[in-house]
Amino acid sequence: MNNTTSILILIFLAITFLQSSYDKLFYWKDNVEWLKGHFANTPLKNQVPLALLNILVLELITGILSVVGCIELFINNGRVFGYYGAVFACITLLMLLFGQRLAKDYDGARTIVIYFIPAILAVYLLN
Question: Helices 80-102 and 4-26 meet at what angle, rounded to 10?
Fold first, then answer.
């Protein structure tokens, strides 16, 4: 199998983003309340629900593209959906990083970098 690394990274991205979007979708109120406090001293303080919805949509798109990309790679060595899943993962993570830096949550920002490394590796491998 020539695409083992790419498939494993896409599975990682799918699990990460689908679980995160599930959490946001089914625990919306809890997430909004926590994030209002997290962003209380930032320009995003009045935009938390809209920002969370934006991230939720991006995470769903990323997770779905990653699953479809994994299947596409496995079935016919296609790379289109996986590539776009990896790109969306990077965009989503950059948005999350921006939010964490804005909130001055440097530990949270550092954690996002850990997820960014395999995402950017997937972009490289699937390009």
Answer: 50
Helix residue ranges per DSSP H, the chain: 4-26, 28-38, 48-76, 80-102, 106-126
Each residue's pLDDT tens digit, 10-63: 999 999 999 999 999 999 999 999 999 999 999 999 999 999 999 999 999 999
Whether the model pTM is above 0.85:
yes
6: pLDDT confidence band, cut at 50, 70 and 90?
very high
Q: Extract the tokens encoding 91.
A: 């965009």
**Domain parsing of the chain, residue ranges:** 4-126
3-state secondary structure 83-100: HHHHHHHHHHHHHHHHHH
Which residues contact residue 27 at a Cβ distance below 8 angstroms, ignoring those fewer than 6 apart?
A: none
